[in-house]
# Entry
Amino acid sequence: MQPTTGASGRGARLALAALGIAASLPANAVFNDWFELWVAENVTHDTNVFRLSDSLDASSVGVTRGRADTIFSTYLGAVANIPVAQQRFEASYTWNRARYRTYDHLDYDGHSARAAWTYNLQNKVTGVLSYDEAETLASFSTFQVPLKDLVTVRALRGSAAWLATPRRPRIGG
# Structure
């Protein structure tokens, strides 16, 4: 006897099982939603890794295995967002690893990090003080040769605003 298909057959049961697996489950807050961990994996196929002009002979700049490559990127990150009275403290860190299938000499481990303090001093002065850092592979659009150039960027930023009239004006008398 041939198995049935349709609402009562095997295909319907598989579809129902797939729907059950794909359905979102309720989210649970960790530390009152002040902390988050995450992981990601990306696969990217780039047809012109070194950003070479179509009119340029790729071998003239040392590209001998074609212009394309597939890059596998893994990310692991953590984020903290902690409110304290009228202030907020934020911190994040992401570690990443990029692996090239063809041009494996470009493989690298990088990161990005951020720490910030959003402050409010007696409703008169507000602002943000932050530090950012990132280490990543430089864009090939700058020098167009198949060499690994890791770049680290660091930035310290601060802003402040003095509220000349910090209280709400009274309307109507």
Observations:
- The chain has one domain: 33-162.
- Residues 2-7 have pLDDT under 50 and may be disordered.
- The helical segments are 10-22, 140-143.
